[in-house]
Amino acid sequence: VIVNGIIAREQVGADAPAFVRNRVAMQAGYLREIDESFPGMVRARLPLLETEVRGLETVGRLGRLLDA
């Protein structure tokens, strides 16, 4: 199961806009649901990148993140 576009909770401070804090809280619930719904399966979590995934360089970056 691949989950992408995750906003890292540790990168969001108390001074972050309410929209971002709400998204992080919402995604936490979804991630918990994924963990509970797919026990024993490999789950890859990819962060929300600062750019679109376009070109070999960015695809390579995602590959390295998956391999980490």
Automatic annotation (TrEMBL):
Which residues belong to any copy of the ArsA/GET3 Anion-transporting ATPase-like domain? 1-66
Q: Which Pfam families match?
A: ArsA_ATPase (PF02374)
The identity of this protein, by name, is: ArsA/GET3 Anion-transporting ATPase-like domain-containing protein
Give the species: Candidatus Segetimicrobium genomatis
